[in-house]
Amino acid sequence: MIFQHPDAVLNPGYTVGTALERALLHHGAEPSSVPGRIHELLTSVGLDPELGDHYPDELSGGQKRRIGICRALSTNPDLIIADEALSGLDVLLQEQILTLLLNEQRRRGFALILISHDLDRVNQVCDRALVMFGGRVVEDLRFRRAAGLVHDQFMHPYSTLLQRARIETMRREEELVLPVLEVAANPGHPRSSAERGCVFVERCDFQRALGFPKECRQHSPRSEPVGHLHTVACHFRSQLPMNAEPAFAGHAPPFDSGRPA
Hints:
Distance between the termini: 15 Å
Radius of gyration: 22 Å
Strand order of the largest sheet: 3-4-8-7
Order of helices and strands: HHHEHEHEEEEHHHEE
CATH superfamily of the largest domain: P-loop containing nucleotide triphosphate hydrolases
Low-confidence stretches: 179-194, 244-261
CATH topology of the largest domain: Rossmann fold
Number of helices: 8
């Protein structure tokens, strides 16, 4: 696991080397091999091995992220779950962290689950995306790529809201904040009815455009195909517009994952 907030998992009383040593020993490493393994891990993520003698409060945010990756790699995992590992980082540092993860993935052969609100990054490195809202999968998309281009686009209203918010964020250079969409009250169907209807009903601007159809509040939509290996949970999926500004449309991503991510 690579946790979202490195400060929450790095013990301020341990040096980086001690933290890695404890992880390695806990997972069965021979004590005599630990110094060499720590040196190798720090080097593999682009850090000076001398940082092993430093405490977390002496490290930058990017260095702490890399230590989090070191901790995950120390177990020689089959699977790494990266939970918002890119949040709060500038674009350049995001590129560096993703490149590092994908290079290590090629070298070690582990699978990678990337949890992120940034669908640009998901488009960029993943082969399959599950979009979830309220604990439910609302869209399942497997990407098709040719010549570095992504030929599939997200369609669910929540997915397009995420991408629109991201695009506006990049334009304004502000933190990503999802807009709260005010849906007109419907006295015939109280707000609690969303529990048996669509999980996204209270924030869906698409149902507004359709005139608040009753299906959205009365029945939970099933995931149905909208294309090849692409499903959407929406009563009106056949009427959903394709996203007008898909991620990385018209140009290749800055790097190629080389294997499923």
